[in-house]
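Notes, p. 3: input format for complexes.
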Amino acid sequence: MGAVQVRGEVLARRRAGAYHLLEVVAPGVAEAARPGQFVALRVGGPLSGLLLRRAFAIYRATPARSYAGTVQFVVGVHGTGTEWLAGVRQGEQLDVVGPLGRPFPLPTAAVGCVLVGGGYGSASLFGLAEALRARDCRVDMVLGAATADRVFGEQEAKRTAASVTVTTEDGSSGVQGLVSDVLPDVVERTGALAVYACGPMPMLRTVSEVAASFAIPCHVAVEEEMACGIGVCMTCVLPVIGEDGVTRMTRSCVDGPVFLADRVRWDDLGTVPADALGATDPGATDPDTAGLGAAGLGAAGLDTAGLGAGGPGAAGLGAAGLDTAELGAAGLGAAGLGAGGLGAAGLGVVSAGSAAAGAAGPAGGEQ
Ligand SMILES: Cc1cc2nc3c(=O)[nH]c(=O)nc-3n(C[C@H](O)[C@H](O)[C@H](O)COP(=O)(O)OP(=O)(O)OC[C@H]3O[C@@H](n4cnc5c(N)ncnc54)[C@H](O)[C@@H]3O)c2cc1C
Ligand code: FES
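Output follows (367 residues plus FE2/S2 (inorganic) cluster):
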């Protein structure tokens, strides 16, 4: 089953430390969701000028039983859209598109796995933990954040995982430091053969380095800025090395957000590497120049852009800030679709490019 667009009632909401946890009735989304996927929410209410949907990892998906299926997600207030979401009340309606993106691949054998979450990034790991345990995999968790109130899900992790290690940068809970400081010990102690991680990009990078030092696979769910969430606008591209060894500027919304960590060119994030397939200007590592290149590809059409170096010109859309992004989206039309009610065609693209591809994708074959 692919992505659907539904309007559903907010069934429950509560604070979880620094975050807001929302449960929304979302039939069709809940049934299709797999760990690592996300939803794109319309924000701001019916009269809002906020055109772009906001992406949130699915924390829990409860398929329909006697009641309609629901999804839960965790909101950290960042800007206008998340602030609005934090104020949404029980009984109000939310417009949800999902599930989007490729899920975490699961190992075929019962291997030990360490799940590493940073801040609200931990939310997407609990469904994964369940799926791994259903395959008899040992699950250990490392949860980190800047401060204790930003560590998400510690109590639930204690119920779920064989061991939980918490780190905070200010030492207000657990070990003072970063998740990557304690990860080597956890991997060594547990004999884990795979790492999964979700959190800020710098964290994913260091987690990836630790996993590489143990020569074990690491799957990361990245969080690139996204305007449309359905593969149309190229806002979310990052340089990823394909199975053929060729780097492509890859859309994290439909080809991710989960990637094998050693395929991501961490040093080149925010640039279009000169050797990326379709890079129009081999010297375009300067963000301004790269942005121009991306704009050109955008104009050339989605197919070209999909294969080529869309580049952080896409980032131009998001990085330029909310106002620019929202206005830019209106002009692009494609991103406008993302905000204002997706047509069946748009969702068709999503279902073909993400969930279906994910099902046939790297799952199982890598570990
Ligand atoms: C796959 C994915 C999963 C995510 N999961 C969660 C989650 O579980 N909980 C949570 O609180 N947040 C999550 N985020 C980040 C969340 O989408 C942003 O915080 C949110 O879009 C910011 O919107 P805003 O209006 O509050 O901020 P503004 O800065 O006003 O947002 C304006 C635009 O900038 C972009 N943007 C700004 N910051 C980010 C960011 N950090 N990541 C991506 N886009 C950004 C968006 O396109 C947004 O439309 C996720 C992002 C992605 C891509
Ligand atoms: S957000 Fe990925 S292509 Fe638009």
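Residues 38, 52, 54-57, 73-76, 78-82, 120, 123, 223-227, 257, 318, 322, 325 surround flavin-adenine dinucleotide (ligand 1) (CB under 6 Å).
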